[in-house]
């Protein structure tokens, strides 16, 4: 049985300011880094370790992954987490040219497939002011419905079309072979994967809210099926 730990990044500076963020690359707040540290301790205290880590390309998810993987040493079992950048980037050479033993490393794979949903024309706007302008109900539909897109942005369904194929092709492959996996990502990219894992309907996913910095732990069997789910929220 493998463990899948899903973690929404800690509070960002725009979460704190109640602004739509989407693909804007805003870092964690002081509280967000503390939340990531607490998440690391919860993962350690639950006796969990990590063999492979996936994050989005956005700094708030990467910061969270790095804090989790380095704050409580037990999680990395004496191994070194190393970020695995894309090999086809013409401006970036050398990161994978070194002497090392792969058994002593934990690869961290950043991927755009796990980025937050693109919030289009809402990016940067204050959420409360936007609700006053367009109505609470309309803004709730933009934020939480499955198929409605915010103006110029992605619906959850669009996000799912990139997150779930990546999850199935890349992440489940590790889980099926027995690796324990950490995904540090975003409210909506994780909602789309949880919708898939928990077999939620479009109506059910509207009510799914993920808190920042709270680990969600799945047991996954060798066929890639969910056996149990636990939320480490206390
Ligand atoms: O602003 C965002 O990018 C997201 C997550 O913080 O917001 P929402 O909760 O509206 O999906």
From TrEMBL:
One of its GO terms (biological process) is glycolytic process. The gene is gpmA. It comes from the Bacteria. It is an enzyme of class 5 (isomerase). It holds the Pfam family His_Phos_1. PROSITE patterns: PG_MUTASE. Catalyzes the interconversion of 2-phosphoglycerate and 3-phosphoglycerate. PANTHER family: PHOSPHOGLYCERATE MUTASE. Its EC number is 5.4.2.11. Pathway: Carbohydrate degradation; glycolysis; pyruvate from D-glyceraldehyde 3-phosphate: step 3/5. The record marks 186 as: Transition state stabilizer. Keywords: Gluconeogenesis, Glycolysis, Isomerase. InterPro entries: His_Pase_superF_clade-1 (IPR013078), His_PPase_superfam (IPR029033), PG/BPGM_mutase_AS (IPR001345), Phosphogly_mut1 (IPR005952). The active site is at 9 (tele-phosphohistidine intermediate), 116 (proton donor/acceptor). SUPFAM superfamilies: Phosphoglycerate mutase-like (SSF53254). This is 2,3-bisphosphoglycerate-dependent phosphoglycerate mutase. It catalyses: (2R)-2-phosphoglycerate = (2R)-3-phosphoglycerate.
């Amino acid at each position: 049985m493998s463990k899948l730990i899903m973690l929404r990044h800690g509070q960002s500076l725009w979460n704190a300011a109640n602004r739509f963020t989407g693909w804007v690359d805003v870092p964690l707040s002081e509280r967000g880094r503390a939340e990531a540290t607490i998440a690391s301790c919860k993962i350690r205290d639950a006796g969990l370790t990590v063999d492979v880590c996936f994050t989005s390309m956005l700094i708030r998810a990467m910061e969270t992954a790095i804090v989790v993987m380095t704050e409580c040493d037990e999680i990395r079992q004496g191994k070194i987490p190393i970020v695995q950048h894309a090999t086809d980037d013409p401006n970036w050479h050398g990161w994978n040219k070194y002497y090392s033993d792969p058994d002593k490393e934990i690869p961290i794979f950043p991927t755009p497939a796990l980025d937050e949903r693109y919030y289009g024309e809402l990016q940067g706007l204050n959420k409360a002011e936007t609700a006053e302008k367009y109505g609470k109900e309309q803004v709730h539909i933009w934020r939480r419905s499955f198929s409605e897109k915010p103006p110029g942005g992605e619906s959850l369904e669009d996000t799912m079309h990139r997150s779930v194929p990546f999850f199935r092709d890349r992440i489940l492959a590790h889980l099926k072979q027995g690796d324990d996996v950490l995904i540090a990502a975003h409210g909506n990219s994780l909602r789309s994967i949880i919708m898939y894992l928990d077999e939620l309907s479009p109506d059910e996913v509207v009510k799914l809210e993920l808190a920042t910095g709270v680990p969600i732990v799945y047991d996954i069997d060798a066929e890639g099926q969910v056996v149990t789910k636990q939320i480490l929220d206390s």
